[in-house]
């Protein structure tokens, strides 16, 4: 049965690429030729979401010796410092500030070889150390929040040792300017999957991806991934299974977007393998001027299928340089057997209180996102109004760091894709000069009071980016959550939902060489 579903997944992915007009979601990295840019440019620069632009890449060579000798090393030194303060730490509220601080110090060293007849390879080592003066005690490590990805909780639990040493990238590549193939451990930016490299080590995937330029201003990709390695893991793990055979929560897919019912024991009890495959396909076009039309497909055979359609259209305002850009993203999740494996639960935490009985047992659901951007002249910044609404059906499963509401209403460290959740966000970003840029956003999150989900909240986030030199950047972030502390727990007349109000501070330095 599993083999049949895998074949269906491959066939569906191929059909999306070859026979349909669906367009891919997310920030798709096009299949560009390997080339050497001007040497006086910084080798790499950081985007606002901490993804990297490679300004200098190795060129093509005609022998194996030069394949290695003409390659390029890319270094990065970085520190991430976090401080977290819960507002209410009373015994009744159940929160503790015992793990209120974390720090990661380390970086990465990546080597990209030159290209021989279109073939090349990339290797990347990542490391994170945790100074004792700014980290929780070993017994409290599991309470860490925003800074937990600077170390491995599983490693601390088993060995008492902090720090991570991980092979973050290791893949072979073939690129002939039309087709780009990568095989191995790699970053894969899509609407479902992101590297999300905002801490110390990126989120990566083991498998094969293929990108093709199928027409003018139109690109498509297909991918198969058999393993994922989250940011706070040293080793790869399954793409969706929660817990391992020994019941360890932190030794398999323990991302915040997981479904706890899709755990190792439930897969075994259902007669299914806990080792799953992920298939993706996406295609994007900018053929129509000012329009980016995208669509994506994901399948984990025997568990779920996702479809996403996304469109953004830029409308210039006369010759002033200003423009408006409306955009939508419709996310559709379909049960492919996962609801039954999860114990007929469509709630990420397993508690079905407040969920619509007519749809219990199914992972079917959908999410609608919309936004309106007002773009400033000369790319100085933008104003954004965003909206999202999840259907009153299942929660959306998204443990791959893609964030279904990302770019629309998601704020830092927020998960607003539970069933029947509605969010409104306003945001402003402004680049004051080549050195300094700032962002502020305010979100109103309306969760379903009848469900065992977070209490309603208002969120404020402020970010600043300071380019101290072309190679050295400082980023500061402040987050404040004001949660409603007067919402009764479902089914109770005396107990209230957790007041998860908090203040959070982050400071990051990145030096690229």
Describe the model.
The protein has five helices and 23 strands. The chain is mainly β. The protein has one domain: Porin, CATH 2.40.160.10. It has an 18-stranded antiparallel β-barrel. The protein is globular, with a radius of gyration of 23 Å. The N and C termini lie far apart (50 Å). The N terminus is likely disordered.
Key words describing this protein structure:
513 residues; mainly beta; Porin; two-stranded antiparallel sheet; 8% helix; disordered N terminus
Low-confidence segments, given as residue ranges, are 1-39
Mean pLDDT: 92
Q: How many H/I helices? A: 5
- Assigned CATH class: Mainly Beta
Tell the overall outline. globular
Class from secondary-structure proportions: mainly beta
CATH topology, by name, is Porin
Topology (elements, then pairings):
Layout: H1 2-19, E1 44-46, E2 52-54, E3 60-61, H2 64-69, E4 72-86, E5 101-112, E6 115-116, E7 119-129, H3 153-159, E8 164-175, E9 179-186, E10 204-215, E11 218-229, H4 264-269, E12 278-285, E13 291-300, E14 304-313, E15 315-316, E16 323-335, H5 338-341, E17 365-375, E18 381-390, E19 422-431, E20 436-446, E21 457-469, E22 472-483, E23 502-512
Parallel strand pairs: 3-6
Antiparallel strand pairs: 1-2, 4-5, 4-23, 5-7, 7-8, 8-9, 9-10, 10-11, 11-12, 12-13, 13-14, 14-16, 15-16, 16-17, 17-18, 18-19, 19-20, 20-21, 21-22, 22-23
């Amino acid at each position: 049965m599993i083999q049949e579903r895998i074949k269906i997944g491959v066939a569906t992915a191929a059909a999306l690429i070859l026979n349909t007009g669906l367009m891919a979601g997310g920030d798709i990295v096009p299949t560009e030729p390997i080339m050497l840019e001007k040497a006086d440019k910084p080798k790499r620069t950081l985007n606002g979401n901490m993804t990297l632009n490679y300004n200098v890449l190795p060129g093509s060579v005609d022998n194996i010796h030069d394949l290695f000798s003409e390659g390029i090393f890319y270094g990065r030194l970085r520190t991430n410092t976090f401080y977290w303060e819960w507002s209410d730490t009373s015994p009744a509220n159940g929160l503790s500030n015992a793990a209120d601080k974390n720090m990661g110090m380390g970086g990465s060293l990546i080597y990209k070889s030159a290209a021989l007849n279109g073939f090349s390879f990339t290797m990347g080592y990542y490391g994170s150390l945790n100074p004792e003066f700014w980290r929780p005690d070993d017994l409290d490590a599991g309470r860490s929040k925003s800074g937990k990805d600077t170390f491995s909780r599983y490693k601390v639990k088993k060995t008492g040792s902090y720090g991570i040493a991980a092979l973050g990238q290791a893949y072979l590549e073939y690129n002939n300017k039309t087709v780009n193939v990568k095989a191995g451990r790699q970053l894969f930016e899509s609407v479902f999957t992101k590297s999300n490299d905002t801490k110390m080590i990126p989120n990566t995937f083991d498998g094969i991806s293929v990108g093709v330029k199928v027409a003018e201003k139109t690109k498509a990709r297909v991918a198969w991934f058999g393993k994922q390695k989250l940011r706070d893991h040293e080793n790869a793990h399954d793409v969706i299974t929660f817990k391992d055979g020994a019941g360890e929560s932190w030794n398999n897919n323990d991302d915040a977007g997981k479904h706890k019912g899709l755990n190792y024991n439930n897969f075994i009890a259902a007669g299914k393998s806990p080792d799953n495959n992920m298939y993706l396909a996406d295609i994007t076009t900018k053929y129509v001027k000012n329009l980016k039309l995208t669509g994506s497909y994901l399948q984990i055979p025997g568990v779920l299928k996702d479809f996403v359609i996304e469109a953004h259209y830029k409308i210039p305002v006369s010759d002033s340089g200003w423009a408006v850009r409306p955009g939508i993203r419709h996310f559709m999740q379909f049960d492919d057997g996962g609801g039954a494996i999860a114990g007929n639960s469509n709630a990420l935490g397993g508690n079905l209180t407040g969920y619509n009985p007519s749809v219990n047992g199914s992972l079917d659901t959908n999410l609608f996102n919309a936004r309106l951007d007002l773009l400033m002249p000369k790319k100085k910044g933008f104003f954004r109004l965003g909206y999202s609404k999840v259907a009153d059906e299942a929660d959306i499963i998204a443990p791959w760091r893609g964030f279904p509401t990302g770019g629309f209403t998601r704020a830092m460290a927020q998960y607003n894709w539970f069933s029947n959740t509605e969010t409104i966000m306003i945001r402003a970003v402004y680049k004051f000069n080549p050195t300094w840029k700032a962002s502020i956003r305010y979100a109103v999150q309306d969760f379903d009071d009848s469900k065992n989900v977070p209490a309603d909240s208002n969120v404020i986030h402020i970010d600043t980016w300071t380019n101290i030199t072309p190679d050295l950047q400082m980023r500061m972030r402040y987050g404040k959550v004001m949660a409603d502390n007067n919402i009764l727990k479902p089914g109770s007349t005396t107990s209230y939902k957790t007041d998860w109000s908090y203040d959070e501070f982050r400071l990051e330095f990145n030096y690229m060489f």
